[in-house]
Amino acid sequence: MLASGFLMVTKCEASFWHPGWHLAWHDEFNKDGPPDPANWSYEQGFVRNHELQWYQPENAFCTNGILVLEALPEHRPNPTYRTNSANWGRQRQWIDYTSASINSHNKQQFLYGRFEMRARIDIRQGSWPAFWTLGSDASSVGWPACGEVDIMEFYARNVLANFGYRLDSRTKWLAIKKPVAGLGGDEWAKKFHIWRMDWDTNKMDLYLDGKLMNHLDLKTADAADHGNPFRKPQYLLLNLAIGSNGGDPSHTAFPIRYEIDWVRVYQRNK
Questions:
Q1: Cα dihedral sign, 82-88-89-93
Q2: Which residues contact 145 (CB under 8 A, 6 or more apart)?
Q3: Per the confidence metrics, is the pTM higher than 0.85?
Q4: How much is the pLDDT for 16?
Q5: How confident is the model over 163-181, as a mean pLDDT?
Q6: 3-state secondary structure of 166
Q7: In this structure, are residues 153 and 162 in contact, taking their beta carbons and an 8 Å threshold?
Q8: Rg of the Cα trace of the chain?
């Protein structure tokens, strides 16, 4: 409908914004409560990178059309703690922070398309949010042979856009970072922004608010171990890590929140 000369569209009328594309899949997070189980599964426990947070489903919830991943200070025993364990997660006797990580593995996977997220991120010390993809064959070929794309990653006052894969038994990274101060600093972080990946048979391009952040020519990964991971399906991940690359959160007032308005995947019209 028209109002005051402007076209009014709902959140779901997403294809309006991308002529030549159709909306193939989306989650608008419009139903209060846990994320839609048809789209998302949870990671649980101490998972990677020696991060401080214990991932648990309770810290991911939808409210007022927004998916919130929330990090909180919580002190309680680590149920996986084992005396003299060689595993970094089991070595920790205590949980001091909790947060959430969800992914679409075995539920929604994609080969090529336009991927978008509208979100607001917390840029304070300790915060490490990300919107990223991994190859759907990760469980069989391992990381980084499965390929990783960080459509959005933030830590240490930098917004990053990265490609990673395995080449000649080594991790190959193509990483770009922009200081958040150059984007507008704390005022920039108060607003929602749009992160995008355009992926086809020739290239991957990563954008922030319509400006190109990083580019990968897919041919450069054709000799990757286990084959080019970016010519295979990928699945989506949304997580809010605490500590490690995010820095020391001990002087940050909690909660730390990562707020996602929507995630959408488009395919080109034929």
A1: positive
A2: 135, 165, 166, 224, 225, 226, 229
A3: yes
A4: 53
A5: 97
A6: strand
A7: yes
A8: 19
